[in-house]
# Entry
Amino acid sequence: MKERINRTVLLVVLAFLVAAPWVLPAIGFDYWLDILAEIIIWSLFAASVNLLFGYVGLLSFGQALFFGMGMFGVAIGIAKLGLGFWPALGFGMTVAIGTAAVAGALAVRLTWHYFAIITVVFSLIFYFLALSAKPLTGGDDGTSFSMPAMLEAGGFELSLTDPTVQYFFILSVAAAAYFLKYLIVKSPFGMALMAVRENDVRASLIGLNVYFLRWITFVIAGGFAGLAGCLFALFGRYASATYMFYHVSGEGVVWTIIGGAGTLFGPAVGTALLIVVREELSNIWEHYPILVGLVVILTVIFAPKGLMGFWNALLDRLAPAPADRASGGGRPNGAVDAAAVPAERRTGP
# Structure
């Protein structure tokens, strides 16, 4: 029952996302298509935070570094190197993954707050490097570029300058990334990651290479963040060092915690909620971050496992699994079926 409800909700959301380019203009919300595309991109960024924090137990404040590397890889590839659409996208992903591989080799040797601190340090180092390398990155001004064609065949041209094409490209890439994440967390590799998260010492005792598992996950998470950066650069035709600052990583952490760390779609839910709240409140009150902070505080207090955790707990109450009902899941906590107790324990000494 629970799986059926979740599957239905997912299909409804997917149907809305596919129909959005026609539904939103029809109801007079044309500008929300760009906001929806931005939500999809940032949810992919939050998914990279969740892969490390939710499944390995490593809290990273450096995902903005890989986001920025992907963004600058695309922008520099097109504006400075004269690359086409797909080569620039590949170049951005290569730069982001390469940076994650090098940074991760050092960072995953640490855990707890030491890991969080070193990821902040890496982010700050490359942020200041991007600002100082003005001939390459544009410094404070950033790097803008003109969008090359995605596909050309004869007189036919497909480009992200078409808002509908751009939206469906972003949606398709993000959907493929989320499907890849699903395959990862449901695989034996994903089970090994969760074993490391729960107890890295015991995981090493049963033969798991804890360092390698953390490193390869760091690289994969960097790839997700870099892909989000590539999409954001193509979305805005612009790259800026501002997006490499660690406060951007902090937003990804907040989105993940609000949506539900360790869940597949929790980061998307948290991202969507806070961006929609931000967009609506910013039109009403200039100090809207105070209200956004209030929403975050209330969510953490009343849904400590995030919105997805609250949703799953609600479904468990309303529609308990058949095994729970068969085993008497409706009995109060601590109640024991007398028939299940051995006779010598029922009768006493």
In short: Strands lie at 143-144, 151-153, 156-158, 238-239. Confidence is low (pLDDT under 50) at residues 329-349. DSSP finds 16 helices and four strands in the chain.
